[in-house]
Amino acid sequence: MDDFPKLLIVLGISIALVGVLWLGWTRISGGAQFPGTFVFQGENMTCVVPILGSIILSIILTIVLNVILRGMNK
């Protein structure tokens, strides 16, 4: 139970870091979308499905969390 507060802190920092990186990416790219993003536009709605961005984010978060959890178990 002693590791739970550490895990929460690390997760919070990781989420903040991802947010800062995401913000930096949109500023650098001028708000352009990732490749692999599908945009469906209707008369009154727009639906954006960032498939490739979601896969990349999932892989990065999986690697980061595995490294963190393995480091905490030592």
Give the helix/strand layout.
Layout: H1 3-28, E1 37-41, E2 46-50, H2 51-73
Antiparallel strand pairs: 1-2
Helix pairs in contact: 1-2
Please give a structural write-up.
- By secondary structure, the chain is α+β, with helices and mostly antiparallel strands.
- The protein has one domain (3-73).
- Helices cover 66% and strands 14% of the residues.
- The chain has helices at residues 3-28, 51-73, and strands at residues 37-41, 46-50.
- Strands 1-2 form a two-stranded antiparallel ribbon.
- Helix 1 runs antiparallel to helix 2 (51-73).
- The longest helix is centred in the N-terminal third of the chain and has 26 residues, at 3-28.
- It is elongated, with a radius of gyration of 17 Å.
- The protein starts with a helix and ends with a helix.
Quick structural overview:
The chain has one domain. The protein is 66% helix and 14% strand.
Task: State the main characteristics.
74 residues, alpha+beta
The chain-level structural class is alpha+beta
Number of domains: 1
Q: Major sheet: size, sense and barrel closure?
A: 2 strands, antiparallel
Q: Mean pLDDT, nearest integer?
A: 82
H and E order: HEEH
Taken from the alpha-carbon principal axes, the silhouette is elongated
Radius of gyration: 17 Å
Contiguous helical run count: 2
Low-confidence stretches: none
Oligomeric composition of the shown chains: single chain
> What is the CA-CA span between the terminal residues?
15 Å
Strand content: 5-15%
- Give me the count of strands: 2
Proportion in helices: 55-70%
Strand order of the largest sheet: 1-2
